[in-house]
Design goal:
Length: about 240
């Protein structure tokens, strides 16, 4: 009787053992499957990195080859720099006869197409000023030569205080904003009564900004020669 009971207990334990073994086997299969998938993903990622690295290597090699050619040929380097410069906005304006003397403190009028004057690559001259085509750093410069009437012998020499100011007109401010300015005294019996004022500065300007030049007395400006009075800007 006892022997039968033992046999029955052993027979009851066998299915339980098989069930536990089945669960363990399933878990093992799941772990193996996950490992295989992980290895496949890792292998694919490594292959992708190798392909990208090879493509990057080819691109860098081509860049180095072009750079070496430019270094070996100074003329190519000059042509590249020249083309980059020529494509940027720039303008040079020269003095012209002023037709308006309404007030002493007034913007000068400029020549923008004849002689040494020009406007290129989007830079426009409108309403007595230069209009900036795109945002960036610009070198802005201006020279104005002032001339007093000829000194007459026997009369006391006259001294005039003159000034030059470059201003910016923008929609952000209701009034023109002063950028750079300078001033000097002109004596009519010194240097034949001539006195040039030169200004230049590197400025950050925005598209649609307009630059104008104002002087203390527009009637004293000498515009007889192009190199005496001028105004310009170019993008760096």
């Amino acid at each position: 009787m006892d022997v039968r009971m033992d046999m029955l207990q052993e027979e009851n334990h066998v299915p339980v053992i098989h069930a536990m073994q089945g669960k363990s086997l399933k878990r093992l299969k799941s772990v193996v499957t996950c490992c295989v998938l992980g290895l496949c993903i890792l292998a694919g990622f490594l292959i992708y990195l190798m392909v990208q690295g090879f493509m990057l290597y080819k691109e860098l090699k081509e860049i180095y080859q072009v750079t070496d050619k430019i270094k070996c040929h100074p003329q190519i380097n000059k042509d590249v720099d020249s083309n980059i410069y020529m494509a940027k906005p720039r303008a040079h304006l020269t003095g012209k006869k002023q037709y308006s003397y309404v007030s002493k403190d007034q913007a000068l009028q400029w020549e923008n197409s004849n002689g040494l004057a020009f406007t290129n690559n989007g830079m426009n001259y409108t309403n007595e000023g230069l209009e900036i085509p795109k945002t960036g750093y610009y070198f802005v410069y201006s020279q104005v030569t002032f001339r007093l009437p000829t000194y007459t012998a026997g009369k006391k020499s006259k001294t005039e205080h003159v000034s030059l100011t470059v201003k910016k007109i923008t929609s952000k401010y209701p009034e023109p904003e002063k950028l750079i300015s300078g001033a000097k005294n002109v004596n009519e019996n010194e240097s034949e009564g001539y006195r040039p004022i030169y200004l230049g500065a590197l400025l950050l300007l925005e598209a649609k900004d307009q630059l104008i030049v104002e002087v203390s007395d527009i009637q004293l400006v000498d515009v007889t020669v192009e190199h005496k009075t001028f105004f310009g800007a170019f993008m760096l």
